C-alpha cells in the first residue's frame, strides 16, 4: 500500500501545493507521490554498486567499503570513479549535443538554407569572433571597415566546430580562460581537445578492464567536464545569443497564475530555443489568433517551463509557469491545452497524465520520443509546420474542454536577462562598460563575494525550500547571487528577483543594489547558460585586484536540489575551473573512501576547486560563506574598507 504524501511538506510553492491537493482529489499521481512511495537504493545512492558487465551487478557495502571488491577485483574507489565519470559523460553529452545542434542550425542559417531564423545580434557575433582571434575588420584603400557579416559568421562556425570534432590541440574558448588557470590545466593534462574525443575516451576508460585507478579516471572526467563548460555549453549560449539576441534586463511574470482560463494556453517545455522562438511567431500570428477567437477563446496565451522557458523569459519576457517539479502539477490545473516539449528533463509521466486531463502532449524532437505522446517533428527549415500544428491542436482542445479548470492565482514579477554583456553595461554604461565596480565593491567589502546557485529541483527534498533558504542566507551576508535554470525560478517565485528584494540583504549588498537598481539575485538564464558564470569569473580575474586565477576569487557554487547528470557535469567543470562547489539533496559517493577525499579535498591542491555537500540549507550557505571569507583573507581584503572622499593628492597618487 502506497504511503500517504504529506502535501504541505512536499513544496513551499503555493501553486504546486494547490495542484497536488487537486491531483489527490482527482486520483492521479505525480513525481511527489512516486518519490514518497519509493525509497532510494541505499547502495546505489552512495555509488557502491557496479553494473558495467554481466559478472555483476556487484554491490559493495557503504558501511564497510573496503570489506570486499567486485567480481573483477574493482575496489570501491574504482567503482565510484567510474560511476561518477559516467554521470559526467552523460551530462556533458546532453549539453554538447545541444551545442552542436545549435551550431548546425547556425551554419544552415548563414548559408541561407534556413530562413525562419536570422543573425539578430551582429555585435555579439563580432564580440565572439574577437574573443577567439577572428578578425572583425579589414583594411581597404587605406581605411578600416567592418568585415562582411556572412564571411565572419562562416569563419566563426568553422572555428567553433573544432569544439566538437577536434582530436588534438585545445578547443577555441580556451582563449577565454585566465592565463594562470589555463597554465595549471596544461600542467595537469586536462585541457579539452574536442568534446567528441573526451566523451568517447571517458566511456572507453570506464569499460570493464580498462582504467582502474581512480586518480587517472578523475583526470579524464575533469577534461570531459571542461569540454562541456568551456565548450559545448558555451557554444550553445553564444550561438543562441547571436541568432536570437543577447539577453538584457526584462520584466517577466512567473508562476501558474500566468495561465488564463479564457485563453488557449500553450506551454513549451525543454531546452532548445528554436522550438520556442518559432512558437512565439505562431501564437502571435493573426490567423492563429483569429482561429482561437472563433473557438470561443479571447486569444492564445503562451508560457514556458524549465530551461526553454528561462531562455524566452530572458529574451522576450514570456511568462514562466514553473520549474521541473511543477511540470506535472500544471497539467492537473486542466487549463493547459497543449504542452510541446523537445529534449532534457521531460518526465515520461507527462504523457499519461496529459491524457487524463485532455491536454495535447506533443514531442517535437527526433532524439526524444515518449510513449503515448503525439509526435510532430520540428524541421528547422520549416519550423512553422510543427508549431502551427501544435497551436491548432491546442485550439481544438480548448473548444472541447471537458475537465474542470482550476488555476492557482499566484504570480510574481521578476527581472531576468543578466547576460555577461548586460552586467558589463549595467556596471559602466555603453562607453565605460566594465566589471571594475563589481571588483572594487568586493575589495572594499560591501559585497562579500559572489555565489552561483543553480540546478534542478528534486522531490527527495522539499521543493524550492532549500534553494530559497540558501539564497536568503547568502544575500543576508552580503553575497551577490547569480542563478540559472530551475533554481532561478524558485527564487523568482518568492520575489527575490526584483530590486525591492534589497531589503533582505546585508547593508553592503543592499547599498549596491539600491545604487545600481538591481536585484540581489540575478537570473542569467538556463542550465546551459552556466557558461555565462564562467565568463563572468574570467572577467573578474581579467579586471584585476582579485587574484590571477579563478580559484583566487571569493566565489562559490551551489546546486541545492540537483537531480540530473547534467548537474554533475556542471559541478565538475566549476570545480575544475577553480570554484568551491556545494551540492545538496544527495551526493553519489561513499564516505570514508579515497575517492571521496580526492573530490572533497585533493582536487583543491590540483585545480583550486573542490566539492562539498550539505543537505541543510543553513549549513550549506555557511560552508559557502566560510569559503568566501577564506578567499578574502588570502587576498588581504577581509577587513571592510570605509568610504573615503578623495582629494587631489589622493587622485594624483592613483
Low-confidence stretches: none
Mean pLDDT: 95
Shape: globular
Estimated structural class? alpha/beta
Known CATH architecture of the largest domain: 3-Layer(aba) Sandwich
CATH class of the largest domain: Alpha Beta
Number of domains: 3
Sheet with the most strands, sense and barrel status = 6 strands, parallel
The strands making up the biggest β-sheet line up spatially as 8-7-6-9-10-11
Q: State the end-to-end CA separation.
A: 74 Å
In terms of DSSP E residues, the strand content is 5-15%
CATH topology tier name of the largest domain: Rossmann fold
Number of helices: 25
What's the Cα radius of gyration?
A: 25 Å
Number of strands: 18
Kindly state the percentage of residues in helix: 40-55%
Q: Could you describe the 3D structure shown?
A:
With 654 residues, the protein is an alpha/beta fold. It folds into three domains: 83-244, Up-down Bundle (Substrate Binding Domain Of Dnak, Chain:A, Domain 2); 256-399, Rossmann fold; 415-635, Rossmann fold (3-Layer(aba) Sandwich), CATH 3.40.50. The protein is 47% helix and 11% strand. The strands form five sheets. A six-stranded parallel sheet has the order 8-7-6-9-10-11, with helices on both faces. Strands 15-14-13-16-17-18 form a six-stranded parallel sheet, sandwiched between helices. Strands 1-2 form a two-stranded antiparallel ribbon. The N and C termini lie far apart (74 Å).
Secondary structure: elements and pairs:
Elements: H1 14-26, H2 31-37, E1 49-50, E2 58-59, H3 76-110, H4 122-131, E3 137-140, E4 143-146, H5 149-160, H6 162-165, H7 179-188, H8 195-205, H9 214-244, E5 250-254, E6 264-270, H10 273-283, H11 286-294, E7 300-305, H12 306-316, E8 320-322, H13 327-332, E9 338-341, H14 350-357, E10 360-363, E11 374-375, H15 383-399, E12 412-416, H16 420-428, H17 436-443, E13 449-453, H18 465-476, E14 479-483, H19 485-493, H20 507-516, E15 521-523, H21 530-543, E16 555-559, H22 565-577, E17 580-583, H23 594-607, E18 611-613, H24 617-635, H25 648-653
Parallel strand pairs: 6-7, 6-9, 7-8, 9-10, 10-11, 13-14, 13-16, 14-15, 16-17, 17-18
Antiparallel strand pairs: 1-2, 3-4, 5-12
